Structure formats: C-alpha cells, structure tokens
Amino acid sequence: MEVIVAVAACVVTPLVYRSLRYHFYTKVNCWFCQHDQRVPFEQQNSFICASCEQYNGFDESGGYNRKIPGQHCVVAVKPTRRFCTSNMKGSGSNGLCDNCNRQQEIILRRIAEFEPSDDNHWNEEVEIYRYKLNKAYPLCVRCTFVAQDKMQQEKWLHFGCECSCKGQY
C-alpha cells in the first residue's frame, strides 16, 4: 500500500507542478537594458521589456525566436521616425542629448588612449574594449533610437534596399 502511495505521489506531483506553474509569474532580465521584471511563466522567453520596450525572445542560435517586422527592408519614400520629438537639446548636430554626447566623448578618448597587451591582436583587443566601454557608457533610450535611425538612413543612402533581406517581400 505504501508503494502505491509513493508511486502516485511521484506521478501526481510533477503534473500538479506543471499545471500550477503557468499561473505564476517569473522574474526575467532584459538582455538590452538589464532591467528586471516579472512576466507570466509562459512568456519568460518571449516578452517586451517594460523599461526599454525591446523584444526579448531568442532561439538556441542567438537569433530572435519570431519575425520582427522592423528588421526587414520596407520600401519607403523617406525614413520614418519611431519616437516622439523631445525637449532635450543636443550640443551638436548629431541629435544626441548632452549627456550621451559626453559619454561618447569619454569612449572616444579612452579608445584613443588604448594600449593593447599584444600588438598582434590589437583589433580583437580594441573591439572587446569598445564593447566594454559601450556597456559602461550606454546611450539613453531616446539617443539609442536616434543612433539606430541615423544608421538606417546611412544604410538606405549607401545601399538602397540592397540589404540582406532582399527578395523577402
């Protein structure tokens, strides 16, 4: 009799756990801005960050686990803005706010002062250093959109719609 109860408990416990698990929230961390938030369990690998509004959902290879429309070429008369205009005034004509311009100056100055530990691997070392600096001195959300918009405009000017998604539409 005790064996039957033990076997039943071993069978029922995982089933109860799985059925109840979907009713609770789980803590997730945004890959882009490192913001922690709670989302329903079934959305732990497919959610939009409440802080930076970026989609977080990745497959085993590191790509998105669903199609993101903004990543594909769309033929347009002119590029469209995806953010509201802000009262933030930039010191330069690049569109970045004063704080982000200062942080970019710090990054550029530190890269200019960079000394590799091995001159034969300078490119690899400077890219790792640049990555760490960009993590330490990130752009604000608004300026990230400005920079992405600027890169998209440059891509459009130089390549037209000859990007990697050619022929998908």
From TrEMBL:
GO molecular function: actin filament binding; lamin binding
Keywords tagged on the record: Membrane, Nucleus, Transmembrane, Transmembrane helix
Membrane topology: Multi-pass membrane protein
One GO term of the biological process aspect: nuclear migration along microtubule
Intracellular or extracellular location(s): Nucleus inner membrane
Residue ranges constituting the Ima1 N-terminal domain according to the UniProt record: 28-144
GO cellular component: a single term: nuclear inner membrane
Membrane in keyword set: yes
Stated family: Belongs to the TMEM201 family.
Protein name from the UniProt record: Ima1_N domain-containing protein
